[in-house]
Specification:
Order of helices and strands: HHHEHHHHHHEHEHHHEEEEEHHHHHHEEH
Keywords: Cell outer membrane, Membrane, Signal
Shape: globular
Family: Belongs to the SusD family.
Subcellular location: Cell outer membrane
Structural class: mainly alpha
Radius of gyration: 23 Å
Main location: membrane
Strand order of the largest sheet: 1-3
Organism: Parapedobacter pyrenivorans
């Protein structure tokens, strides 16, 4: 296998478009050595490699919580953010989104290959520092390949700086790439420190990289590896579930908890303001909420009752009663994650049907679904230009859920897997006299029933955290859930339940892989278009 770098066009960009902060010692520098010469330069390229692709707070197309707009969880109201068109299926090989995402990944992959190949150049007093920074860069490169193969399947695969000839080569099959990068990622993880960093905590350590390996092993059906990585993270003792689910997504605990495994904090985004209130929050009086991403009825209706049952399987109330009042006998994670008509915000009752209210559902900056995410929307930011919240790119709860799912899929659902589910449900505040999965009523569950349970548990625990689209793709259920209209709040009209309708959606079988944009095919002649585009 060739192990060089990405096609030459992006390799050239990698060298010529390095941000001005790199050129800090000499504004007339003309060679790589002149601006890549000390330990601080190594730190800076690591920092920029996070910022530009993974944690840029103003770049809505790549923000993790905006990713739910591609799925049945949420609606993204601005077409240019790319999530809306992918969710409603109005896409083809000329859709700008696919050029944007592919070029973004490939350009920065080229930069990473250049930095990694030259990591021995900068002077450092302690070689362990070089090893750490180089390993973090290598981990970021792995992350890029995980994302690329998840979206496009076969892609160009090189791990060294490029030549012009490399641009002519066909892409490498997905499984061949994964067979290389999974063991490579484990090797990289062993070089990283075991403990959390006291500063620059967004950088990978040994266990946060293992958690990322776990996520993509699960995504790719490598369940033994996913379970093993999850167990190693659990046994590290570095992480635990925070006592209050809701506080994790507010200032009360966002920057002070042991649950965030991969961090998106102030240091990882240039210490600039975060914009989660603006992106997710309501337009309240003179506030800055723009409702760019809002939850859908599809998500609201999947929240358990307090007894851990689906709303159409709970004998306490009718399904219609639950649909009309989402807070009725509901899993407390609902109120911690979502707010809508009749709820309180900033001391005022939300009324989405009052035309004189800024939250009126037909207003441009209001929610067309009548719901908003409460996650990452702290009222402290209601009248501020920005915030300083920390965010989780991967939480310990996902580790527990991943272990349980992997063991279910291996038909080896052990006591630890059941404990993982129970720990999450108990922390959520469910009635464990009924919701405890070790109770006799669960003894007769088939594998299909356990699969349905863990998928729903994952959906509500991680709602608004950017994993739902990947889940419906890997579970191959997008054809079902994205061929439904996007609906919102439900109320009675003339005695009949009526839900707000936002848009029709569609998903074709070939949409499980994204197309290469026509421009990418012209620039990189070795690329092969995915089927039916």
């Amino acid at each position: 296998m060739k192990r060089k770098t990405l096609f030459v066009f992006f390799a050239v960009l990698a060298f010529t478009s390095c941000e001005s902060f790199l050129d800090k010692t000499d504004p007339t520098a003309t060679s790589f050595d002149e601006f890549f010469n000390d330990e601080e330069d190594l730190r800076r390229v690591v920092y920029s490699s996070y910022l530009d692709v993974f944690t840029s707070p103003g770049e809505r197309p790549i923000l993790f919580y905006m990713e739910d707009g591609k799925s049945d969880n949420a609606y993204s109201r601005v077409e240019g953010d790319h999530h809306q068109r992918i969710a409603n299926g109005n896409i083809n090989s000329n859709t700008q989104a696919f050029l944007y995402y592919y070029e973004l990944q490939m350009k920065h992959m080229g930069r990473l290959n250049t930095f990694i190949a030259n990591a021995e150049i900068p002077y450092v007093e302690d070689e362990s520092v070089r090893i750490k920074y180089k390993s973090v860069l290598e981990a970021l490169r792995i992350w890029h390949y995980f994302k690329l193969t998840t979206r496009w399947g076969a892609v160009p695969f090189y791990l060294e700086p490029a030549t012009i000839e490399d641009a002519q080569q066909p892409p490498t099959p997905k499984e061949e790439i994964l067979n290389t990068i999974f063991p490579l990622a484990e090797e990289i993880a062993e070089r990283l420190p075991e403990e959390e960093y006291t500063s620059d905590k967004y950088m990978f350590n040994q266990y946060s990289l293992k958690a990322l390996i776990m996520r993509y092993a699960l995504y790719n059906g490598r369940y033994e590896l996913a379970a093993r990585m999850a167990k190693e993270v659990m046994e590290s003792g570095n992480y635990n579930l925070h006592p209050s689910y809701g506080d994790l997504f507010q200032y009360e605990a966002a920057s002070d908890n042991n649950e965030f495994v991969i961090h998106f904090d102030m240091a990882s985004h240039a210490n600039s303001a975060t914009n989660s209130f603006q992106h997710l929050g309501p337009h309240y009086r003179t506030g800055n909420g723009q409702s760019y991403l809002v939850p859908l009825k599809s998500l609201v209706d999947t929240y358990w009752t307090k007894q851990g049952r689906l709303i159409d399987e709970c004998p306490i109330h009718t399904k219609q009663a639950y649909e009309l009042d989402p807070t009725l006998n509901r899993d407390p994670r609902y109120s911690a994650s979502i707010m809508g008509h009749g709820d309180q915000f900033y001391g005022e009752t939300i009324d989405i049907y009052n035309e004189n209210n800024p939250m009126y559902y037909e207003n441009q900056r209001a929610s067309r679904s009548g719901y908003w995410f409460r996650k990452f929307v702290d009222e402290t930011d209601a009248f501020r230009g920005g915030g300083n919240m920390d965010f989780p790119l991967l939480r310990y709860a996902e580790v527990l859920l991943s272990y349980a799912e992997a063991k279910i899929m291996m038909e080896d659902f052990d006591d630890l897997a059941k404990q993982c589910i129970n720990d999450i449900r108990r922390r959520a505040g469910l009635d464990m006299t009924v919701a405890d999965v070790t109770l006799p009523e669960y003894d007769s569950y088939t594998q299909d029933q356990w699969i349905a349970l863990i998928r729903n548990e994952r959906r509500i625990e991680l709602a608004g955290e950017g994993v739902r689209y990947d889940d419906i793709i890997r579970w191959r259920i997008a054809e079902n859930v994205l061929n439904q209209p996007a609906l919102g709040h439900t109320r009675l009209i003339n005695g009949q339940p009526v839900s707000l309708k936002i848009e029709d959606r569609s998903f074709a079988p070939h949409n499980y892989l994204w197309p290469f944009h026509e421009n990418s095919l012209k620039v990189e002649p070795g690329l092969i278009q995915n089927p039916n585009y």
